[in-house]
Structures are given as structure tokens and as C-alpha cells.
Design goal:
Blueprint: H1 8-13, H2 38-51, E1 55-61, E2 68-73, E3 89-90, H3 96-108, H4 130-135, H5 167-171, H6 190-203, H7 207-216, E4 239-242, E5 253-256, H8 265-268, E6 271-272, H9 274-285, H10 299-306, E7 310-314, E8 328-331, E9 336-340, E10 343-352, E11 355-362, E12 367-373, H11 379-392, H12 399-417, E13 439-443, E14 447-454, E15 457-462, E16 469-474, E17 479-482, E18 492-499, E19 502-510, E20 525-528
Antiparallel strand pairs: 1-2, 1-12, 3-6, 4-5, 7-8, 8-9, 9-10, 10-11, 11-12, 13-14, 13-20, 14-15, 15-16, 16-17, 17-18, 18-19, 19-20
């Protein structure tokens, strides 16, 4: 039971085929691997050995030294192709900073304003509460304080489906708030999807076209594509996860397929190499200016992008077991901003099924790091911290041991919550004949499920999500659990509400306490389709 699972939830705690290239000319940046750095190599290889990591790529920018770029290990378990400085990874939510920067460019062009209501540009935009609809600004789309619950609506995006981004607008009115508008932080993806749609409304280009033409191409990000489906050629990192037993995040490392679809683009679609991401970090620290003097955006907009908007967390600061803990962590526009060992840290992470990536900058030092991993394990976050410490010259700290302690605590807590086993169903069972549970049920934001009699049992089909099809196992009173195909997201516990001998509704939750927040089964409320 080794490994440190880092899904989208935990990443926050560490925390172009078919497209026409246009815009400013591509810039030339240094992207060849520098001479070996034993200190960096030691950090990476120690983590990889401790957590059985298949592959890692890193970039380290330090003033007065060549940018350090290096790949380690293999792209995919069981295959010899190595990770190198041009291997492409899904950078997931690190893409949010590109979406925010794209809007900053449009603000400077006078096509949009940060504090104008979204409905000015997308008249059909609606939230659950009409009052919030009227107040929601372009800025609010990016800062995770809308009142929506953590990961609200993410089951529309993960696992993959062919849903277009426009379905986010149809779903939002049915996603109830968990708290008051602008009263607190809860990370979401769906409002970044709306931000991508806003870019399309303002420019007549899809988010993918705009980001490719106005950011990736002028920055010289030649390995990059705005989404996985646009990648051409090879040198693409595989995906790896621990699929149990007993829970995802435990057990041996296995190869899994990607599971993001087109709706994810503006919230987490970009694929890039560490050679690419260096350009992004450098232009951020140069306040939008390219090496030839041209500017993608102004220093004023850079300040806007990094200005804290929402308080994420507050603490007493560093501790003996976590010396990098910030006193205050905030969210700006597409970036987290916090203190790190007394310095300003601007950073983000990105988690997809089978890959986790990190980008981080210490603007006061003009230093930055990126760590891309081809596993869900949290190795990238630990390497990031160790590399930041190297840039700062911080006192020695065993980040490997700290990461191992974190995963053990999380796994122990999850097993305790489950009673240590998934082999024995809770007491109780169906109160009705199985035929009485069969039928079509509908949730207003997600869509339909179909429950059918199959042999001597029941089966379920989540019709919008192709991989979510399963037999149902009794799991308590009027409750069942799924057995989705191996590697297909997380299993669900499905509860049928029964009144006067009839099913009146269906609610759900993830089976595993370690489940990624994007499997937000708990936000579903199905009713029978009459």
C-alpha cells in the first residue's frame, strides 16, 4: 500500500491539429537541457524511488543560471520511450492561468471589462439564484467564490463524454449554491468553462483557437496543444494510477487511459512539455513582455492577474512537519497566491486521471519551477516544494518523508471510515421487488440514468457518461453500489427513496472517501421520468 495519491482535490492542497496559427511571431527561447545539476537530480530521483513514479519532467528557472530542463524515467510503464524535455503532459488546471490571461488581453482591447456582469456578454447566462445571476461579473467567473459547492457539475466533464462546453450554461441554473455569493472559497471548474465560452462570444473564435493563436504560438510553445485531441505525433506521457485494492490511490501502479473530454478545455485542457511551460512562466514574471519587446498584456493586467481575490485558507504558518505552510493562501485570477517561507509564491497545480502537474513562481527572486508527473501520486507536489527550497536556499527538510506521512494518514483515515474493507455489504437490502427499481431517472443538470433488470439483479447506465455502466450490488436498505470498469473513475453508492412502495427519487455519493471531488455524485438528485 505505497504511493501518494494526488487527485484534483489534493492537487489544490499542494498548492494543434485543426487550428490555424496566427498572431505575433513565435519567439525563440532557450529550451535545451542544461548541464547536470546533482542537487536537482537527487531530489527527483529520491521521490521517484520512494513512490515508484514512472516518469517526471522538471524545469527550474534561477537568475544567473541556465534554465534547467530534464526528463526522468519512462513515458509509460512497460514501454522504453523515455520522458524528455519535449514530452507532452496534460497540465490540467494549470490551463486556468491561460484562460485568465486571454481575458486580460481582451480587457486591454476594450472588448470586455472585469467588473461588468456576465449577462452583458452572455445574455442567457443563469445561476441558481436570480440575484447571483445579476451580480456575477467576469471577474467572479475566475475566483471560486460563487457559492457553488466544491467541484459542482464536474461529472459533466469527468469521465469523458462528448458534451460540448455550451451544456455548462444549461446546467448552471440547476446547481444549487452551498453558501452565499462571495462569502467563501470553493474550487470549481464549470465557471472556467463559461469563461471559455465568453472568449468565444467576444472573439468569434473557440477557446482552443484563441489560446493557440494568441498565446501558444507567439510564446513559441511548439510542443503544446490546447487540448489532448489536438496533439499530433508521439512523445506523449502516459497515465498511471493505483487502482486498489482496496481503494483507488492504493495498490500497484497501473496504466490507465485519459478521461477528459472537450468540455474541459478552458478549465484544464492544455497539453504541454516543460520546455513549453518555461515560456509561460517567463512571460508571467516579465509582466506580459516577450523577449523581443512585444507585449501580450500590460504590467497593469499582470498585477490584476496576481491580485488576491478570495481567501482560500489561513493558518499559523510553518510548522515542524510542514515548514512551507503559508499564513494566508488566496486565489487571484487563474493563480493561487500565498506566502512561502516568507516570500510571495504564485502557483497552481493540475490533476487529471493519471497525471498531476505543478507550476510555481517566486516573483521576488525571478525564480520558478515546474514539475510534470505521469501519475496520480502526489510526487509532483513534494518535488515542487523541494525545488522551491533549493531556489531559496532554505534549511534542509525531508519532503519525501513528509509526503509519505501525509499519504499514510489519508489512507488510514479512509480505511477507518470504511471499516477497513469493501468486501462486506452494510446490513439491509431491497424493500421492493427488483423490477420496482427499474426505470429512467433524471437529474436536471446531469441528465438521465437508466436502471434495468438484468438476470437476477439490476444494472445501471449513466447515459451521458459512456464508461459509467455497471451491475448493481445490494449495499444496505434500498441501496446499491456500482462496479464500474477498472480505472473508470470512482464507484458510486446509489440510494433509492421509497415511499408507499414506490421509488420517488435517487441520490448518490462516491463509495471511496479518497474519491476525487470531480466525481460529485452527491450533487445529483434524480426523479423518475414519467
Amino acid at each position: 500500500m505505497s504511493g501518494l495519491q494526488l487527485n484534483r482535490r489534493q492537487a489544490l492542497l499542494w498548492s494543434a491539429g485543426g487550428l490555424v496559427a496566427a498572431g505575433l511571431p513565435a519567439m525563440a527561447f532557450a529550451t535545451e537541457q542544461a548541464a547536470a545539476d546533482p542537487a536537482i537530480d537527487d531530489i527527483v530521483t529520491r521521490f521517484m524511488a520512494a513512490f515508484e513514479t514512472p516518469g517526471i519532467a522538471v524545469a527550474v528557472i534561477r537568475p544567473g543560471k541556465p534554465t534547467y530542463l530534464k526528463g526522468y524515467g519512462v513515458q509509460t510503464l512497460g514501454k522504453p520511450a523515455p520522458v524528455d524535455i519535449h514530452t507532452r503532459f496534460g497540465i490540467a488546471s494549470n490551463s486556468k492561468s491561460f484562460t485568465a490571461a486571454a481575458l486580460a488581453m481582451l480587457v486591454e482591447e476594450g472588448k470586455v471589462a472585469w467588473d461588468e456582469p456576465v449577462t452583458k456578454y452572455i445574455p442567457e447566462f443563469r445561476m441558481h439564484d436570480p440575484r447571483v445571476t445579476a451580480l456575477m461579473t467576469v471577474r467572479d467567473l475566475l475566483v471560486h467564490n460563487s457559492g457553488l459547492a466544491l467541484g459542482a457539475g464536474d461529472l459533466m466533464q469527468f469521465p469523458a463524454s462528448e458534451r460540448p462546453a455550451s451544456e455548462a450554461l444549461k446546467a448552471l441554473p440547476f446547481l444549487a449554491a452551498e453558501r452565499g455569493f462571495r462569502t467563501g472559497y470553493a474550487y470549481d471548474n464549470i465557471l472556467y468553462v463559461v469563461a471559455g465560452l465568453l472568449i468565444e462570444r467576444l472573439t468569434g473564435k473557440t477557446w482552443a483557437e484563441f489560446v493557440s493563436q494568441r498565446l501558444l504560438t507567439p510564446l513559441g510553445m511548439t510542443d503544446a496543444a490546447p487540448a489532448l485531441r489536438f496533439l499530433k505525433g508521439g512523445n506523449v506521457a502516459g497515465r498511471h494510477a493505483r487502482l486498489g485494492p482496496p481503494l483507488r490511490g492504493m495498490g500497484p501502479m497501473e496504466v490507465i487511459p485519459p478521461d477528459e473530454g472537450p468540455m474541459t478545455d478552458a478549465a484544464g485542457g492544455i497539453n504541454a512539455s516543460v520546455s513549453d511551460i518555461v515560456h509561460w512562466l517567463e512571460v508571467q514574471m516579465a509582466s506580459g513582455k516577450l523577449p523581443d519587446g512585444n507585449a501580450l498584456w500590460s504590467p497593469a493586467q499582470q498585477a490584476e492577474l496576481w491580485k488576491p481575490q478570495t481567501i482560500v485558507a489561513s493558518s499559523n504558518g510553518p510548522s515542524d512537519t510542514w515548514p512551507a505552510r503559508g499564513v494566508t493562501q488566496t486565489y487571484a485570477l487563474g493563480w493561487f497566491v500565498q506566502d512561502y517561507r516568507g516570500e510571495r509564491l504564485v502557483h497552481h497545480s493540475g490533476g487529471l486521471s493519471g497525471q498531476v502537474t505543478q507550476t510555481a513562481m517566486l516573483p521576488g527572486r525571478k525564480a520558478a519551477v515546474a514539475v510534470f508527473s505521469n501519475t496520480e501520486d502526489g510526487v509532483s507536489g513534494g518535488i515542487r516544494n523541494a525545488l522551491l527550497d533549493l531556489c531559496i536556499g532554505a534549511p534542509a527538510f525531508d519532503w519525501v518523508a513528509a509526503a509519505q506521512a501525509r499519504v499514510k494518514a489519508a489512507n488510514d483515515a479512509a480505511l477507518a471510515e470504511l471499516g477497513g474493507s469493501l468486501d462486506k455489504a452494510p446490513a439491509g437490502g431491497p424493500s421492493l421487488a427488483l423490477d420496482a427499481y427499474a426505470g429512467r431517472y433524471r437529474d436536471p443538470w446531469y441528465g438521465d440514468i437508466v436502471v434495468s433488470k438484468r438476470g437476477k439483479g439490476l444494472a445501471i447506465d449513466f447515459t451521458p457518461t459512456p464508461v459509467f455502466k455497471s451491475a448493481l450490488e445490494p449495499w444496505g436498505p434500498d441501496t446499491f453500489r456500482t462496479h464500474f470498469p477498472k480505472g473508470a473513475g470512482e464507484d458510486a453508492v446509489i440510494k433509492f427513496a421509497v415511499v408507499d412502495g414506490k421509488v420517488t427519487g435517487v441520490s448518490m455519493k462516491a463509495l471511496s472517501p479518497l474519491a476525487d471531488f470531480s466525481y460529485d455524485f452527491q450533487h445529483l438528485a434524480f426523479v423518475p421520468v414519467r
